[in-house]
Amino acid sequence: MTRHPHRTATTGAVATLAAATLLLSACGTGVTPASGQAGGAEPVTVDNCGQDVVVDGVPEAVVGMHPSQTELLLRLGLADRLAGQAQATTQELPDDVASLAADVPVIGGDTPPSREDLLAVQPDFVYSPTTYEFTAEQGFASIEQLQDSGAAVYVATGGCADRRMSGEVTDLFTDLEDLGAIFGVEDTAADLIAESRAELDEIAAAVADVEALRVAQVYVDGTSLSAIGAGVEYDILRLAGSDNVYTPEQPAFADFFAAEITPESLAAEAPDALVFSVSDAEHEAAAREYLTSTFPDMPAVREDRLIAISAADVFPGTLGNVAAVRQIAEALYPQEL
């Protein structure tokens, strides 16, 4: 699989993702051609977040609601169909596709766009990592308002509520299959799926016989410490060959993928490695300083296994999920990869 440049994201984007998980609705999948349209491309119906999303013909004014989604649309060859890119300042697009979006209007800055700004570009298809971006109470356009304006709305499968707590990296493949059918780019979507599957298969073979290291995934915000124990984040560590300290079976993660913890409780676990997501270089430096100074005797610190990953790479429905699996596996088992 082609390695993509490291992505950056703001702390606000991370907070947005955490808040979003409280507001999602159940997700499913399945692509079926609809009937009844005369002329042009046939309409397509996909089951997304427990609802039928009906797309009448190939969309021509598409908005990616986060750079991770915009990147996926660009890699599917849909640059000429983009009417807007949202939250564009939270994450730089990879160098090899950034130029394709140079003329695409930026809406929303580092937050989801306002109702007025999103509707102003007259989208007919909106693709989002979560449903938080459609929270009317925050001043965003709701799914219903977008549908009333003629836009279809698609949420990344791993960002739906039922999948958010049990999401897997391979949920991305559902999104690619659905988008391939909607935009008539099935072959390109299939190629991306094949590349990603090959990447995951290569990593799985490399770590199959390792003595798994105990790994804790945490998030550091100043001196506030949270553990990550469910969702696609958990699956990323699992696929990288780790023995996860925090798991979905633990009561702390029964309802939410993250839980605030004390430094003492983390120290007691004595993990061999720490994985922590960061929004930018400054955040990484601050988090690394906190972890090294707070836990000098922890095996993860003594063995220099503090693994920073981009917060954008754990957003649901992003190729970054696959890149994060490799990054973590290489850091944990450098002799195997």
Features:
disordered N terminus; Rossmann fold; five-stranded parallel β-sheet; 2 domains; single chain; 337 residues; six-stranded mixed β-sheet
Along the chain, the helix and strand elements come as HEEEEHEHEHEHEHHHEEHEEHEHHEH
Query: Largest beta sheet, briefly?
Result: 6 strands, mixed
Shape: globular
Give me the count of strands: 14
The overall pLDDT, averaged over residues, is 88
Give the oligomeric state of the chains in this entry, treating copies of one chain as homo and distinct chains as hetero: single chain
Fraction of residues in helix: 25-40%
**CA radius of gyration:** 20 Å
* CATH homologous superfamily label of the largest domain: Nitrogenase molybdenum iron protein domain
CATH topology (level 3) name of the largest domain: Rossmann fold
> How many structural domains in the coordinates?
2
User: Which CATH top level class of the largest domain fits?
Assistant: Alpha Beta
Reported CATH architecture of the largest domain: 3-Layer(aba) Sandwich
Low-pLDDT stretches are 1-39
Strand content: 15-25%
Distance between the termini: 14 Å
Number of helices: 13
Structural class per helix/strand content? alpha/beta
InterPro entries: ABC_Transporter_SBP, ABC_transptr_periplasmic_BD
Family: Belongs to the bacterial solute-binding protein 8 family.
Keywords: Signal
Domain Fe/B12 periplasmic-binding: 61-336
Indicate the topology.
Elements: H1 11-20, E1 31-33, E2 44-48, E3 51-55, E4 62-64, H2 67-75, E5 82-86, H3 95-98, E6 106-107, H4 115-120, E7 125-128, H5 143-148, E8 152-155, H6 161-164, H7 171-183, H8 186-207, E9 214-221, E10 224-228, H9 231-239, E11 243-244, E12 258-260, H10 263-269, E13 273-278, H11 281-294, H12 299-302, E14 306-310, H13 320-332
Helix pairs in contact: 7-8, 8-13, 9-13
